[in-house]
Amino acid sequence: MPIVIKHQPNFTKINFTRLKSYEDPNNAIVSIRKVRPSRIQAFERELLTRLANEVASAPVLVDLEIDSLVVYAADANPDASIQAMKRLLGVSSGDEQQHREWIVRNSRYSPAFRFTLSDEDERLYSVARWCYLGSVDDWVFLQGSSSLETLARTYLPHAGKESYFDLM
Question: What gap in Å lies between CA 22 and CA 133, rounded to an integer?
Fold first, then answer.
């Protein structure tokens, strides 16, 4: 149902069926944006989310861009953080799951991989990783023209590990 906002001298109709709330994984800013059409299908996003949670060593989020799926990795390692809290604060083992969930929910997430649909008919993807060099700060191409599952199983295990920085 459109909502009418009165402006002088015209009326503006806003159709909320074409808008959605969006939280940017990189900085947690919530905004309202237009629903944009994408060539990526829902099952592909679900597949990447499932694979990321299975094989990545860090907590991850998968975000849909227009023709890409971007994987964000948590900057904090929940297991290392819990071990540090145990040593410093004496956190009990019974509270570990609750603390782990809190750490995952409140971690800062940074871009790690971008899977871009390169061939819509064959459903082939290319993958790039985020480069953290101060002068670059952009996506660096890694491999192209392969299935999403193959690329995910090859590259996602590096998320949150030192080996990530060796990928080129």
Answer: 28
CA distances to 20, 28, 136 from 23, rounded to whole Å, are 10, 6, 25
Rounded to whole angstroms, the Cα distance separating 14 from 1 reads 9
As given in the structure block, the two tokens for residue 87 are 């040593």
d(CA 86, CA 9): 63
pTM above 0.85, yes or no: no
Query: How confident is the model over 79-110, as pLDDT tens digits?
Result: 777 778 777 877 666 677 787 888 888 888 99
Task: State both tokens at 16.
Answer: 């909320």
Task: Compute the Cα dihedral for 156, 160, 163, 166 and give only its sign.
Answer: positive
